[in-house]
Amino acid sequence: MSKKILIVDDEPNIVISLEFLMKKEGFQVAVAGDGEEALAKVASFAPDLLLLDVMMPKKSGFEVCEALRTDSANSALKIVMLTAKGRETEVAKGLAIGADAYVTKPFSTKDLVVRVKELLGAV
Amino acid sequence: MLSGWFVALVASAYVGLLFAVARYGDARADAGRSIISGNVYALSLAVYCTSWTFYGSVGRATSGGLSFLTIYIGPTLMLLFVGVLIKMLRISKTYRITSIADFIASRYGKSQLLAGLVTVIAVIGIVPYIALQLKAVSASLAVLFGQVDAGVLPWWLDSTLLIAAALALFTVLFGTRHLDATERHEGMVAAIAFESVVKLVAFLAVGLFVTYGMFGGLADVFQRAAAVPELSRLLQLDAMQAGSWASLILLSALAIILLPRQFQIIVVENVDESHLRRAVWLFPLYLLLINIFVLPIALGGLLHFGAQSGYADTFVLTLPMAHGAEALAVLVFIGGLSAATGMVIVETIALSTMVCNDLVMPWLLRSTWINAQKRNDLSGLLIGIRRVAIILILLLGYIYFRVAGEAYALVGIGLISFAAVAQFAPVLFGGMYWKQGTRAGAVAGLVAGFVVWMYTLLLPSFAKSGWIGNGFVEHGLFGVDWLRAQSLFGLRGMDAISHSLWWSLLANFGAYVVVSLNTRPDALEAGQAERFVDVFRRAHRETDSLLWRGQASLGELVRLLERFLGPVRAAQQLGAYAAMRGVDNWQRLAVDADLVQFAEGELAGAIGSASARVMVASVTQEEDLGLEEVLDILDEATQVRAYSKELEAKQQALEVATAELREANERLRELDRMKDDFISTVTHELRTPLTSIRALSEMLHEDPRADLADRKRFLGIIVSEAERLTRLINQILDMAKLESGRAEWTTAEVDLGNVAREAMDSLGQLYRDKDVALSGEIPDSGPVVMADRDRLVQVMINLLSNAVKFVATGTGAVKVTVSTDAGMVRVSVADNGPGLTADECSVIFEKFRQGGNTMTDKPQGTGLGLPISRQIVEYFGGALWVESQPGAGANFIFTVPLPAADE
User: Which of B56, B404, B555, B870 has its C-alpha lying 20 to 30 A from B202's C-alpha?
Assistant: First the structure.
């Protein structure tokens, strides 16, 4: 059974690249373009891992993460934050909110895949 | 009958007893065991009760009823002002005041002029009062012996003259033993207290005799008097007399302090301030006791001798005599003698001190005679001067008695004296409480008051005695009715005393205040004013030395002291001073301001502070302290207060500055944060396209066997993102340059119409591709402004490309309008797109913010176009804004000012 990954980002081109990348690795992929859509898709798609952008309209990645973490049903859900904001404060904030990993853009595709596999492998 | 010898013997014995008491008092003082206690002090105040009290009260009661009491109500009330009296005591002790003239002179800058003036007024005012005492004694003698006495003594040895001579002798012996630096005469005070007791006993005795011996008690006397119409009115208080009662009470209240003898006893002779508190109730008690029987005696006398009897003053003698109580009569005579002699002794001592210190000495010191004398010990001279003064004053009193005694009732003369010393009140009390009183003011006040007193009271009294014509009384000076001596300026209806009191005090007080306010005190005056008014607040030693600057030699000062105090006493005092300073030999005393201060104080006791000041100044080289300096030094407290006020003000200024700094700091932090945000946002914006570029590049690189369609797609994205990145970087740099003011501008004439047309042309293809209508309302030769053409084109292109992004395909329409309006060129780009909310209208001009809220329609813009356009337009003095309603399209408008019209 293959793992499900939900990609959340408001930049279409980034979504395209991530989608292709994850599909190539054999994951099931769904996409959301903003925070609200993301929460809806988590409920319906029930992914195992979230690739979550921070800077989004409607709801930011931080808010989404917070919302998901308060719900104990999502305790098994892995969240990887993807963002161009790389300041230490942001990193700390992300991890404090409950992200499992924090990756800055631009990222290395190889490294991202390794990370994702790690998180999903250790089940 | 009484024999003259018997009476003379008794009198002599009494005087001898007085001597003994005085001797004893002095001996105890010398041994350091002073006999002066609170009771003795209070009793000595009763020297106020002279033969006026003894004889005159009864006389006055027979004509004026209860009005005789006014003379005693005043002092009782004045003693209630204990605070004022204590202040006077403190000042006098602290500054070694020796007389009332010294007090006044010292306060107003140690002025010899004032000292002399006060002395003259005092002498002129008091001589009649002394004569009054002598008259009383002579009258009492006449009563005792009837007229049969002619054979006892030759006419040129008039008994009164003998008495005056005896008084002079007593006074000389006990008032001028030595020059005490504090001018205290404890023996004399003891004798005076003793006399007060004798007076009281004698008066009470005759009172009891009349009331219970001749009648059946107080009730009996009053009842019998009430039965006689002329007498019953004496028992009533007459409301019409309230005015004169008021003036009499005021007069006596002032006299209890201002009479030289009273000042001497109350202030100069005071040993301990606490004695005053006992006197406050004991003295009024004495007054009460001595006055209880006045009215009964008066009524008794009138009842006995009939209402037309002659000399009511002597009822106290005639009543016992008429009943054969000769021993009582002799006792009463002794009492009267006590009263008279007490007054004369103390008054002449006080006056002679003033005459010596404040009248003769200043004159002597100025004369070359004294310097030529080169005598080393002037203390003998000083004592000699005083003795001569005593004798002269008594002589004057005797002369006045002979010449004027018959023309006036006793009491009248007394009140004239009271009114004279009342002139000291404004300058004295003013000096104690009003720092602004100046010497000039004091002189003016005294002179004015004295002149008015002379004119309204003294001269009329001479006129009544027939010495001078009374034209000025009847018709006014030079015949001017307004200047009638006893109704000045038309003030009628008052008795002579009240009239005089009113005018003289008015002139006195008025001149004092007006002149003081208009003159400035010199340094010494101001210093003294401070010292007197603030006596309770100061530790006088330290600041006094601070105020003295100069040099002196010990030898000179010592010589000065020896000259005036005598070598023995000088050495004594110097030794005491040295011991106090902790130096074993006074020859080795440091010559500093303290020593000079001490020397001056010692001298003041001998020759008065005014003369002492002059003498000390003559042997030291002193620096003149300017008024400002003095006030500076004395006003330490004020200075400190001023400094602390300054400090407070500075502190407040500091707080304001700190608040301002805090604000500025906040603003800087805000800006810093904004800069951080900007950088963070820029980084984010740059990294986003880079992410796609890198990810896609990596994926293509990894998988060379990827699908061609995918490959093409990915590469396309890579290219466009690279373009996007480039655009972004360019715009960011542009923005940075514009904001930092380092952009390059070329200013030339620009035709805005052409600019609009050019922009429309370059975007024409884009519009056609999206099928959006583009129209323009542009004048053929558009308005010309001075600007940078390329930049304005950049603005137009920005606005047009924004418009085409947001309008719908097919139905979209954009219209460009160029016009002029009120000195500005107005260009508008209106579209029929979705429009903007009020919030969005301002938000879109912020950096990196873009319009549109549908996520599917993610614009390819950078979010910097509008901010940059605004910067450009504002650089040229214009403005850029948008007018829009949601759903009703948007209208972007910018203005550029037209160049100022040239000639």
Answer: B404
pLDDT digits (tens, 9 = 90+) for B564-620: 777 888 888 888 888 888 877 877 777 777 888 888 888 877 777 777 887 788 777
* End-to-end Cα distance, chain B: 137
Confidence check: pLDDT of B148 > 50: no
Q: Among residues B436, B452, B449, which one has the least CA distance to residue B514?
A: B436
Name the residue among B125, B116, B55, B105 with its Cα closest to residue B610: B105
Chain B contact for A114, CB < 8 A? no
pLDDT band at B237 (very low <50, low <70, confident <90, very high): low
Predicted pLDDT at B873: 92
> Which residues of A are less than 8 Å from B695 in CB distance?
14, 17-18, 21, 106-107, 109
8 Å CB contact of B688 and A24: no
Chain B neighbors of A7, CB-CB under 8 A: none
* Whether the predicted pLDDT of B855 surpasses 70: no
Question: Which residues of chain B lie closer than 8 angstroms to A84, CB-CB?
Answer: 683-688, 691
**Structure tokens that stand for B340 in this block:** 């008279």
Q: What stretches of A25-108 show up as alpha helix (H) in DSSP?
A: 35-45, 61-70, 88-97
Contact A17 B699 (CB under 8 A): yes
- Give A-chain residues touching B683 at CB under 8 angstroms: 84-86
Residue found under tokens 């650089």: B875
* Residue A54 near residue A89 (C-beta atoms within 8 A): no
Interface predicted TM-score of the whole assembly (ipTM), two decimals: 0.90
For residues A80-93, average pLDDT? 80
Q: Which CATH number, 3.40.50.2300, 3.40.50.1970, 3.40.50.720, 3.30.413.10, labels domain A4-119?
A: 3.40.50.2300
CB contact under 8 A, A55 and B684: yes
Measured between beta carbons, the chain B residues lying within 8 angstroms of A106 are 687, 690-691, 693-695
CB contact under 8 A, A17 and B696: yes
Does A91 touch chain B if contact means CB atoms closer than 8 Å?
A: no
Q: Which helix (H) or strand (E) holds B208?
A: helix B186-208
Task: Provide, rounded to the nearest whole percent, the portion of chain B with pLDDT above 70.
Answer: 85
Sequence length of chain A is 123
- Chain-centre distance of CA B107, in angstroms? 16
Kindly state the greatest CA–CA separation across chain B.
175
- Per-residue H/E/C for B797-864: HHHHHHHHHHCCCCCCEEEEEEEEECCEEEEEEEECCCCCCHHHHHHCCCCCCCCCCCHHHCCCCCCC
Query: Do the chains contact at A13 and B683, CB–CB below 8 Å?
Result: no
User: Residue range B694-713: average pLDDT?
Assistant: 87
pLDDT(B4) > 80: no
pLDDT digits (tens, 9 = 90+) for B490-506: 666 677 888 888 889 99
Exposure b/e, B640-671, CB count within 10 A at least 16 = b: eeeeeeeeeeeeeeeeeeeeeeeeeeeeeeee
Mutation pick from A20, A54, A83 vs chain B, by most beta carbons of B within 10 Å, is: A20
Percent of chain A with pLDDT over 70: 97
Helix (H, G, I), strand (E, B) or coil at B887: coil
Tell me if A57 and B696 make a contact (CB, 8 A cut-off): no
Model pTM above 0.95: no
Helix, strand and coil content of chain B, in percent to the nearest 5, comes to 75, 5, 20
pLDDT-based confidence at B401, cuts 50/70/90? confident
Share of chain B above pLDDT 90, in %: 22
Q: Does A34 touch chain B (CB under 8 A)?
A: yes
Does A109 contact B703 at a Cβ distance shorter than 8 Å? no
A10 touches chain B (CB under 8 A): yes
Q: In 3D, which of B410, B420, B412, B406 has the Cα closest to residue B466?
A: B406
The pLDDT score that the predictor gives to residue B283 is: 92
Per domain, the residue ranges of chain A are 4-119
